[in-house]
Design goal:
alpha+beta, Histidine-containing Protein, Chain: A, SH3 type barrels, 4 domains, about 25% helix, flat
């Protein structure tokens, strides 16, 4: 009988302990979910990946975040509930990267992947001279954040890692931007000389010296090369003279007709649908969100009734699956409206090409017309998600 009482008490204690543990874990999940929803709803641009574990009669917080404020609110909330825990959450960047918290693209196009390995999905791309924030490191891979805040991984071979002081010195140098769709940098002032590298639109290099037909340029890693003068211009001059209007949106987009579709691509060498719209707007001096599902939340809503009315050249058109009672809207494709009395839009699907919503045109696109979700206007609209490079040249430390 005595043994039975002891066992009963022990079992009761275990059950109470388990219930308390489960209750505490449930409270954490609620707090975590609410804070994440407010401060880091999109893991592509903000990390809040935190786990709550019970080990050796102790609660332990692990994981990583890029938001100090969100973590602080979580910690204060747990303390307010008198929950005792050990905090092991990493706030990025941390000691894994030390003081080298910046990087510059060092190849014509840098491939930024969803995981730190070459076989991982291509999430996005960067360009030569593009400034990146470095958040984390795993072996020879760095987790970086692009100017549009997209977070993913790039191998060390594609970038030049820098301290805040080194990036400051780089930013003080006069820069050139490559304005042709693609070309090469040479070892000497001769297009028949050895090539230092290829280069794509948007590539940025430091100006060393101006020659008759070439610019002498410097790469982020210190390499020296020569760039044809008719294919580049001073970065500040380019911004000052950038038309940033509907007609230039069209002409910029059409320079990429026939460029192949590349999932994750955001350059003139290959792009996916949102990568195409992104590079077109970059040609006009704007940094816009990376993915179609992000681009649809920027700018001004137009054509609310989905009648292709009130659209202006340069508006972004979105396609996908409309919302239902039990499912949210799903944006899977984006293009740029041109109109031109033909109901035309230009987009990247298989390759960059023109399509029409007019059934009388030979390039009529019934498939996309039937899944049209609406449009957004970016030109002339002030929005924190649309970065006007004329007002914000580069992110500086």
């Amino acid at each position: 009988m005595k043994l039975f009482k002891i066992l009963s008490i022990s079992l009761f204690t275990v059950l109470v302990s388990c219930n308390n543990t489960n209750k505490t874990a449930s409270e954490f999940e609620t707090l975590h979910s609410n804070i994440k929803k407010e401060f880091a709803p999109d893991k592509r641009v903000e990390l809040f990946d935190i786990q709550f574990k019970h080990k050796s009669n102790q609660f332990i917080l692990t994981g990583e975040t890029t938001s100090k404020k969100a973590l602080s609110i979580l910690l204060d909330s747990l303390k307010h509930k008198n929950i005792s825990f050990k905090n092991e959450v990493r706030v990025l960047p941390d000691s894994a990267v030390g003081n080298k918290i910046y990087a510059l693209g060092n190849n014509s196009v840098i491939n930024i992947r969803s995981k730190p390995k070459h076989s991982a999905e291509l999430g996005t791309q960067g360009l030569l001279g593009m400034q990146l924030k470095v958040l984390d490191r795993k072996g020879s891979w760095y987790r970086v954040q692009t100017p549009d805040n997209y977070i993913s991984w790039v191998d060390a071979g594609g970038i030049e890692i820098m301290t805040a002081e080194k990036i400051r010195l780089w930013n003080k140098k006069h820069k050139l931007i490559y304005t042709a769709n693609s070309g090469f940098v040479y070892e000497s002032k001769n297009t028949k000389s050895t090539r230092v590298s290829d280069i794509a639109f948007g590539g940025i290099l430091a100006l060393v010296k101006e020659h008759d037909s070439f610019y002498e340029v410097e790469y982020p890693d210190g390499r020296i090369g020569f760039l044809k003068k008719d294919e580049a211009v001073l970065y500040t001059t380019w911004l000052k003279n950038s038309p940033s209007n509907a007609e230039f949106i069209e002409s910029s987009a059409k320079t990429m007709l026939g460029v192949p579709y590349l999932w994750g691509g955001t350059s003139t060498k290959g792009n996916d649908c949102s990568g195409f719209t992104k590079i077109v707007y970059l040609m006009n001096g704007y940094i816009i969100p990376r993915d179609a599902s992000q681009q649809v939340h920027a700018g001004k809503v137009v054509d609310k009734n989905l009648k292709f009315k009130g659209l202006e050249k340069g508006d972004l058109m979105f396609f996908g699956t409309p919302a239902t009672n039990d499912k949210k809207i799903r944006v899977t494709h984006v293009g740029i409206w041109l109109g031109n009395n033909k109901g035309e839009f230009i987009h990247s699907s298989s390759n960059v090409h023109l399509s029409s919503i007019n059934e009388n045109e030979k390039n009529y696109d019934e498939f996309n017309k039937n899944r049209y979700l609406g449009s957004r206007r970016y030109l002339g609209v002030k929005d924190d998600k649309i970065i006007d490079l004329k007002a914000s040249l580069q992110i500086k430390p």
